[in-house]
Request: fold
Amino acid sequence: MAEVLLGVSGGIAAYKAVDVLRMLQRDGHDVSVIMTRNATRFVGPETFSALSGRPVGLGQFTDPGTAGYDHLDFARRADVAVVCPATANTLARLAHGLADGLLSTSLVAFDGPVVVAPAMNTRMWEHPATVANVATLEARGVVVVPPASGLLADGEVGMGRLASPADVCAAVERVVRHGGEMQGREILITAGGTREPIDAVRYVGNSSSGKMAWAIVDAARDRGARVTVVAANVDLPRRPDVTYRDAGTAEALHRVCLDEFPGCDALVMTAAVADYRPVRAETGKIDKSAASSLQIDLERTTDILSDLAAARADQVMVGFAAEAGAAGLQRARDKRTRKGVDIVVHNDISAPGIGFGSDDNAITIIGPGDAEVFFERRSKRACAEAILDALMSQVTARTG
Ligand code: C5P
Reply:
């Protein structure tokens, strides 16, 4: 259970911070609230003081009887700070270290983990200044709970709605439970699906989107890990605080992994790597009028996981097994032994609504050791947390 500092800045979504306060308390946390002056135009401070059972911080130089604590008291007391909603103005202040009000000053005085939940009009969210400020905050390790798309208070439809109070509280919960747990650890994560050229424009590929790997990247960053991603054809937004190396084919992915693997503490091999590639790629575009059928000779690619496992120092290794049907689970178990990795994450690709391209997954985490846990359908982010829990149990078992 944690001491949470809830900062409420002045947007119409401020009323949703009341729900966030209630949910944090329901999760067992104690909450102190600081409101910016503009926030009090949307919700009365009495609401927050009555519900939190504590005086609300309103300003550095208001009636000392009202504030009760100064910025240092707020900062010293908190285990985690969450700003909800975070306006464009408050994000800018936090990004640049401005300290001209009780909330901004307390945040500058606070050296613990910070979660921000932005909410604003789409144009403000997409303004280059806001984009740069969010990037600065993420690079500093601030957890940004991205806004959702939908009907905004001004009647426009677009990106900028405050994330749901449940999502904001889930982010706080993750920080409370895991924040800093992977500080100093280097994690290598492969993502997407390789494409093996047939000719200058065609390829043998698969439909991996990279979403599962991207969720693992977010989860690992939120736990404080340094993350390098080897991306095979992933068309998803990239974080400023992660190193990305692109590798489109199995061969290129193998090469980059060989380069990065020695320096990492753990490898999560999420990428769907082609098992076969055309023996020879034609230089131009194959002319379809030349013949009524086409034969392409395929050869096996190197199994990157097995290759790296054979040469590993003490890296923890996680592989994936996308398998169809009931027999797939046994194949995934066998794969863990055959490839010599610590953990295999199995998902049943014949089940509808999960896996490739979707936002949800249902997985069985096989290993470390005899452990085998099934996680029924949930978000890929929730699956990522479970995978990192298993991975970290092995990292700490090895290195303490
Ligand atoms: O043997 P299979 O392709 O089912 O194994 C899947 C796991 O092995 C995944 O983690 C995938 O990234 C990895 N793999 C690999 N090299 C290959 C093929 C798959 O490392 N050539």
Notes: The longest strand covers residues 316-323.
